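Record Pantothenate synthetase, 283 aa.
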Amino acid sequence: MITITTIKEMQAFVLEKKEQQVSVGFVPTMGYLHEGHRSLMKKARQENDLLVLSIFVNPLQFGPNEDLESYPRDFDRDAEIAKAEGVDVIFFPSAEEMYGRYSSVQVNVKERTDVLCGKSRPGHFDGVATVLTKLFNIVLPNRAYFGLKDAQQVAVVHGLVSDFHFPIEIVPVETVREEDGLAKSSRNVYLSDKERKEAPILYKSLLMAKEKVQSGLTDEIKIISEMKEMIEGRSSGKVDYIEIYSYPELKKVEPLEGKIIIALAVKFNKARLIDNIIFSVNE
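=>
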């Protein structure tokens, strides 16, 4: 495994490999790797000749009330995990390398951002789309891997690749869960023992909603109401949102049919957890 820190060297390395008909799998991250990242690397390792992992804490996707400086960083730890998962190259650029002194062009995402978590984080997905546009042009992957735990990000990336005609296959990877169903997240460590025991109710509420929809219930208000009652009645968490949309378009859909997402965010004392379920109705 090697580490590359400059754009010029990364592009040259990949172009040389592509001349040898090598397929490139790419896992973009902001580091501080966890089980979710491992699942992306495992799948990418299975499906490609060369596996590239990027570690870059992207300043453009942090809002004014989000502390960029306090974002956890531990390159040595990340490198050990990457090596164990068979990563060939870590692309580890600085912010100055990626953006220079100023940027004359940024990507503006116009769809799929004003719902779910995006509505409370204006500009966040512009930052995500801008850095991914750069990374896709630097790493030149055949396939790029993203976790469905952040299904809104996956939807935005699908739109980016489609609209800008990147010759890249986007591979969504299922959410990694604990044995009791709780989605694995770095935020789970902020749950108290009591909250940790309660937290699996989030996924149980999603499974309940899926079952009701597939059994013929199409009243969105009733579905959301029953989910909220289930979560708040059986945990100390407070529902931030529960929303239902078409996927990946993230548009309201009436009646409920086709591929849909039911997504939620729940606030506990020191942690805000997100989760979702994506499935097809009447197909």
